[in-house]
Amino acid sequence: MGLLRIIIGAFVFSFLINFYSYNRFIKKVSFFIPYLAKIRILLYVICILEFIFVLQIRFSFLSIELYLIAGILIGFSLFLFAVSLFYDILRSIFSKSNFSPTRRKFIKFCFDITFVIFVIACFLKGIFNALTPPKIRQVDIKIKNLQSNLKIAMITDVHIGEFLQKDFMKKLVNGINLANPDIVVIVGDLVDINAAFIGDFLEPLKSLKSTYGTFYVPGNHEYYHGIDGILEKISSLGIEILGNKNKKIASINLAGVYDLAGFRFKHLEPNLDEALTGRDPSLPTILLSHQPKFIKSMQQDVDLVLCGHTHAGQIFPFGLLVLLDQGFLHGLYKINDKMQAYVSSGAGFWGPPVRIFAPSEIAILNLSKE
């Protein structure tokens, strides 16, 4: 019944946002009017394909090509809805202005064509952002009592699975190795597929090079696809799993917790007290936690929390909803006098292969003494 509600809800949501975009944006653009019948048919097809895409997430029956097309259409619907809402607001403001009919018609034509060009340009750039390897983002962070400088390469939210596979993983590894890090951390949602179907998608991780090794905590998506098998697979690659534990590395305590999804699944639940047990109190502590909203529940401070999950919103302006849910979106945050947090925008994508105003990244964290 839960799955059925999700599927029906997704279809209704798809229909409503496309209906709104059609009535409040597309119908109001003068040069679309001769083609409205065809556009309506196209929107019906889009709704059906988006419904199929939701089924695909659960049952995995589409080819890669159809998966990509359906996912892109979902991204397009979401962005078009956001633009339509903005267009609607501006059109309402514009309608109150006192212009002559001729001037009003000219201004509206310029206004309409600007919005159409904006939608197309931003959406195409969003597809490009999602499907190309992430860029390196250098982040300088001051840490109290840090004995020596440390370079941490951080990736999150790769979502290896239906579309992003071995080639994409290899490009990530090459990018990380070029940075010559001291430590590599993978902060959840590395995998979005059952362990039985991973095959050699993660094999490039064996080629990661760093001074002290690679460390990982799971995200919520690993729980959806059988976390025990996934953890076993990741551990077999020589990656150390920091599930509710810590390890002294160089001049820091590196700790990690399981994801908040553990509470829902009643399995491998996050436990900060357990994760920090036995740490060296004279050294700074860095905590890996996939979802940044875990910070809100922390009863002990650490020096730096590294998180992912948000994708920086992935499709603008839906980052506002992510911000409401998580309390953080992307970048470096000062939590209090002692604790900071860095939230990565992630290396891959989930669902629509689109990133609009939310570029992916490999974060290189350059830690130095405050």
Automatic annotation (TrEMBL):
It comes from the Bacteria. The keyword Transmembrane helix applies. GO terms for biological process: lipid A biosynthetic process. The keyword Nuclease does not apply. Pfam families: Metallophos. One of its GO terms (cellular component) is membrane. One of its GO terms (molecular function) is UDP-2,3-diacylglucosamine hydrolase activity. Keywords: Hydrolase, Membrane, Metal-binding, Transmembrane, Transmembrane helix. The chain crosses the membrane at residues 6-22, 42-61, 67-89, 109-128. Residues 150-312 form the Calcineurin-like phosphoesterase domain. InterPro entries: Calcineurin-like_PHP, Metallo-depent_PP-like, Metallophosphoesterase_sf. This is Metallophosphatase. It comes from Campylobacter concisus.
